[in-house]
Amino acid sequence: MLPESVAREIISSHQQRPRNRGELPGAPFAALDNPSCGDQVTVWAQREGEQLAAVHFEGRGCAISQASASLMTQALSGRTVADAQALAAHFRAMVMGEEAPDPALGDLQALQGVSRLHARRKCALLAWNALEQALAGPTPG
Fold first, then answer.
1. Is 53 contained in some domain?
2. pTM for the whole structure
3. Eight-state DSSP code of residue 3
4. pLDDT at residue 88, as a whole number
5. Residue 141 covered by a domain
6. What pLDDT shows up at residue 138?
7. N- to C-terminal Cα distance for the chain?
8. Rounded to whole angstroms, how far apart are CA atoms 48 and 89?
9. Binned average pLDDT, 10 residues per bin, the chain of 141 residues
């Protein structure tokens, strides 16, 4: 588990300077919103075979939703789809308070505190839910 000050620093960094922001033309995508707080996110997942060549997002909302999306894109780009889905399952279980943070999550562990904030769980999982839909959709070309 990361110290709280480190977790806050990671979240702030990703919220203020999101990584992998911007559309991936031609890549499957999904757009979701959280009507209870107004967060919105669109996630693109470019595949090359079973690899996630790139994962990008666009969105607006709270620090948790935007940091989670940015952290997700960094953690999953270059992984196989199966590895990405396994990591997503660990992340979801951590956010829901079902599992302790797994060191394999790396900086994603910064969002562990969300498990204590039931209303914010949806914020942390919004981009991950969009990614799941994007991966389930048709693959272009």
1. yes
2. 0.94
3. -
4. 97
5. no
6. 64
7. 42
8. 22
9. 91 96 96 94 96 97 97 97 96 97 95 94 97 81 44
What 76-81 contacts at long range (C-beta under 8 Å, 24+ apart), as own/partner pairs, is 76/52, 76/131, 77/20, 77/52, 77/53, 78/51, 78/52, 78/53, 79/51, 79/52, 80/50, 80/51, 80/52, 81/47, 81/50, 81/51, 81/52, 81/135
Q: Output helix, strand, coil percentages for the chain, rounded to the nearest 5.
A: 55, 20, 25
Domain CATH code at residue 123: 3.90.1010.10
Whether 79 is covered by a domain: the verdict is yes
Give the model's pLDDT for residue 137.
Answer: 78
What total of structural domains would you count in the chain?
A: 1
Domain that holds residue 24: 4-136
